[in-house]
Amino acid sequence: MRINVRRIATLLLAVAAGCAKDPDYSTHDAGTGDTGAVMSACPADASADAPAIDVGGGAPDAGGLNCAASCEFAGGVAVGCATRFQYGINFAWDQFAGDFGGISAWCAPGVSRSARVRSALLDMRANGVDTVRWWVWPDFRGDGVALDAGGTPLGLGGTALADVDAALALAAEAGIHIQFCLFSFDNFKPDRMLNNGRFIRGIRSIVLDETKRAALMQQVVRPFVRAVTASPNAARAVAWDVINEPEWAISGADAYGDEPFTPQTTLETVTHAEMEAFVRDTITAIRAESSLPVTVGGAAAKWPRAWSGVDLDFYSIHIYDWVNMHWPYSASASELGIMGKPVVMGEFPVNGLTGVPYNQMLESWYGNGYAGALGWAVNGGSSAALSWSMGKAAVKAFAEAKGCTTAY
Description:
Layout: H1 5-19, E1 77-79, E2 82-84, E3 86-92, H2 116-126, E4 131-135, E5 145-147, E6 153-156, H3 160-174, E7 177-184, E8 192-193, E9 199-200, H4 204-208, H5 210-230, E10 237-244, E11 250-251, E12 270-271, H6 272-287, E13 294-298, E14 315-318, H7 321-324, E15 343-347, H8 358-367, E16 372-376, H9 388-402
């Protein structure tokens, strides 16, 4: 039997890339630990019950968007009066799955009680970032989504509403904008009891049950989006990403002619039609409460038409080395088979692809008709290619070179 070594290597890179963003569970104080022990008492500065941080009293933000015509970017993402090259970084979290609700059992505060978030956002803005992609519930380990014993969503919990207000107020203070990413392929891990006693509900049973899925939309998604829209700093939100890289949790193929999906073996999969129904319902829930543009964080240009059947305002695709081997960064969106809507490069190594420096990538996309670029990441990666501290100077240099076309 002939073995295609290149294809096997590409598949291994793809699996590694899909897993690369899982949080590091080796330390408890990161607030993300699958292995940390549940503490009987939290330090005062780490508890989800800690005093709320000062976010300036909730004064309305009068400077949310810059409507200057001279800053327009043809083919960019339109938000209200401004069409821009959507430029920035993936946060993607301070506490994985805990930023919007907290994780009280692990002493992991939400945004409204975390002293770290302010300085992180200020650092992003000081280094050229305008749009921050911020993950909300990549799984249900946190307190932000209340579920009954059978897994039916009951509503928002923990400090979720206070965290929304704080995130937007801190964004206004820092002068940045937020793209909220609601879910992730990580949600499709099976129901599990961690060795620290924390139970995490997988989302598959919710996605496949019409009653539970409707409850998620009506009791969780809509109230969260409504809270963003009602915030005095609502102008700091610029987009919604329904789900991060859902392709990793899909088996089979889509109905649009793409290659079959290659799901991660650690996930409980659904068919493309089932995932599409979930995405479609989430879009409907978002649009009931918000006029902001909506996207899906597609894993790769390997599946260019996967989300062409749902009501998106722009496409978002991710690129890492394994993708670049077959669907190169230098190709236009139409050459990749992605047509009809603006396309944002929603994830890529903030220090560049192998052999391709950051500025070379960005100049290619900026000049090749793409609608934006959001590197990975301030948190969520330990390799040099993903290091924010090493890459932020290049992020700033590009923003300064392109001026206000990169800022809402």
